[in-house]
Recover the amino acids of this structure.
């Protein structure tokens, strides 16, 4: 159990997907303008990450021992169809939630965090529960980074920024400082 | 779509529409694996290969790919080439392959590659698609090297593992750690913005001077 908690904490803080591995940068740059949208995007991400982790585990256990060279192709196909199915189910079951998630759901397909999770999970040889906690941690970490970024950017909007620093340059430098702050968590534990 | 010349197709991606520095696509590899020139070079070459291969195939097969499933088809083609690149790197330079780790596989979700297929290769003849891929791939590689160069020189005091500053140099370790990636790209963009602003300013001054001269005459 302690092992699982450690996986969770280390993926949220120490090995944060966005700030330490640069995964999921597109939404991080794109939808981090408002705290509310950032939160929704984060939730959608957690949901898809958990489903992906389960699928990756199933593929790793049942298909890939027989055909290792299919790893990448099978992962990407499964993720793409998974997102499509989830989208259809949510649309049918809860139109309200579907409306809230809006375009974020399809956008997630091309989010490298999702494929990254499947590959990292495979490389680290996690079992089912470890994978599950890894996925939840990754999702929470993404959400945390998104929300932090969004709240800083909301404030930065009211500040007087020199003309040459406006736009992406400022966002990247803020992200760099955030990432540096998160490096402080590196002392939390020695196991990775 | 606007008609372009072959020369434009080739050179556009290198600087004017540089995938990383101008379009902000493919940021994940551009930040993650550029902590040394060697890694940046390997990543650049792998992406170049995948981009050229998939552009060639997408352009060749564009008549047979149904519109409804085109994105999935492109991704399958890209994933095939990435698998080839992954295995090729593992066989030829195992040390670098190990350092890049999962990020080779993540070339599949590099939006720059998918973007070129959707925007260009799927609509143009084979030769043009290949020229465009070569241009964009080279632009991507240049951006990676710009990042990798700065980060390795400052973070390790070396270039391509050759020490530059002697023993007294205290390396800025932060540059080869994740924050260095964000900061380096941020400062490159700052520099480029400053340059464009200056150029604009100068042109304005020049125009004002000219009109002033004309009035005096």
């Amino acid at each position: 159990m302690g092992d699982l908690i450690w996986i969770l904490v280390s993926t949220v803080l120490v090995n944060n997907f966005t700030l330490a591995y640069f995964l999921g940068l597109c939404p991080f740059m794109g939808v981090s303008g408002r705290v509310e949208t950032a939160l929704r995007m984060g939730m959608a991400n957690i949901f898809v990450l958990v489903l992906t982790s389960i699928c990756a585990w199933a593929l790793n256990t049942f298909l890939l021992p027989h055909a290792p060279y299919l790893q990448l192709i099978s992962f990407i196909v499964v993720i793409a169809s998974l997102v499509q199915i989830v989208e259809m189910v949510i649309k049918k079951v809860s139109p309200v939630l579907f409306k809230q998630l809006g375009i974020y759901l399809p956008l997630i397909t091309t989010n490298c965090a999702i494929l990254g999770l499947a590959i990292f999970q495979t490389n680290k040889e996690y079992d089912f529960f470890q994978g599950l906690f890894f996925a939840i941690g990754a999702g929470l970490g993404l959400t945390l980074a998104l929300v932090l970024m969004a709240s800083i950017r909301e404030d930065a909007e009211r500040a007087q920024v020199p003309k040459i620093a406006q736009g992406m340059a400022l966002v990247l430098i803020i992200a760099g400082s955030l990432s540096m702050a998160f490096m402080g968590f590196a002392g939390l534990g020695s196991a990775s | 779509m606007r008609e372009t010349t072959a020369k434009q197709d080739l050179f556009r991606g290198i600087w004017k529409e540089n995938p990383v520095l101008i379009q902000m696509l493919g940021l994940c590899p551009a930040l993650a694996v550029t902590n040394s020139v060697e890694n940046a070079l390997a990543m650049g070459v792998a992406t170049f290969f995948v981009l050229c291969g998939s552009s060639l195939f997408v352009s060749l097969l564009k008549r047979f790919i149904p519109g409804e499933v085109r994105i999935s088809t492109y991704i399958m083609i890209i994933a095939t080439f990435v698998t080839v690149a992954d295995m090729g790197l593992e066989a030829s330079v195992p040390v670098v392959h190990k350092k890049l780790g999962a990020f080779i596989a993540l070339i599949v979700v590099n939006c720059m590659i998918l973007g070129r297929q959707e925007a260009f290769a799927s609509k143009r003849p084979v030769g043009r698609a290949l020229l465009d891929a070569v241009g964009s791939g080279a632009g991507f590689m240049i951006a990676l090297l710009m990042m990798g160069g700065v980060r390795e020189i400052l973070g390790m005091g070396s270039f391509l593992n050759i020490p530059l500053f002697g023993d007294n140099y205290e390396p800025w370790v932060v540059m080869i750690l994740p924050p260095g990636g964000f900061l380096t790209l941020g400062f490159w963009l700052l520099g480029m913005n400053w340059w464009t602003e200056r150029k604009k300013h100068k042109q304005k001054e020049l125009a004002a001077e000219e009109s002033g001269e004309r009035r005096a005459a």
About this structure: Strands of chain B lie at 158-159, 162-163. Residues 7-197 of chain B form one domain. The longest strand of chain B covers residues 158-159. Residues 178-216 of chain B form the longest helix (39 residues).
